[in-house]
Design goal:
Blueprint lengths: L24 H10 L6 H10 L8 H15 L6 H12 L4 H12 L1 H10 L7 E2 L1 H11 L6 H17 L3 E2 L4 E3 L6 H13 L4 H5 L2 H6 L3 H13 L4 E5 L2 E5 L6 H10 L1
Helix pairs in contact: 2-3, 4-5, 4-9, 5-6, 5-9, 6-7, 6-8, 7-8, 9-12
Amino acid sequence: MLRQDNPLGFSKASVGGHSARSMMFLEMGALVRAMPLSVTKNDFIKAIVDENVLEKPTLSSRKKSLHHLMELYGMDPSKALFRVLWDFSHVDLDSLHQLCLVCAYARDPQLRHSFELVRTLRHGEVLERAAMEQHLENGFPGRFSSATKKSMAQNVNTTWTFGGHLAGKTKKARRLPEPRPISAAYAMFVGYLTGLRGERLLVSAFASLVASNRSQLQAALSLASAKGLLSLKQAASIVEFDFSNLLTPAEQTLFHESH
């Protein structure tokens, strides 16, 4: 994972947005519906704080929502990680839950750690909140208070529910995600930004965020390639991805320099 500050949009924070909120899927949906494709970071600030497009009851709650959204996503279209999410969400709004999940996962160390537990569950197996609390403690020993662990466990479980990996309101049971071409392309793109290539992308955690098996992932990626969202070449055991169409020349230069 890229850790340094860079124009790609990754975060180096040791505590992610799930210490305070889930992935705020409903708020992101409201923003996509209310705002155009071409926006700036300042446009989000104006829309959320000044225009109250999220319909929050107080100025304080508007500012908190903005802060949490920036923790989760960066909310900066000048950076590839968020810009491609924003672009893709306007192509297929039904993919938004998986787009948000992939972006939040890339930026939040606690959400990444929580997936290590979620992905071990069998289809239909119930995930108790206490099990997630203990898993977070194991990953970050002594880091969080009991109250924070409880809140964080609730938040990550809510995110996994919105993201298609859990089902149920009070009892959370494992379900399996189904990829859409847009979300499959974005998952591979974000994995690519972290340095993964070829076959390693197809077997990565990013792949598991949007698909439950290889065949459905590759079917979705083939459709994405046909739509021009990415370049995918496969020959025998060789797999090659090219996402240069999604990166600016400056980003491509900086990205290659970082590796």
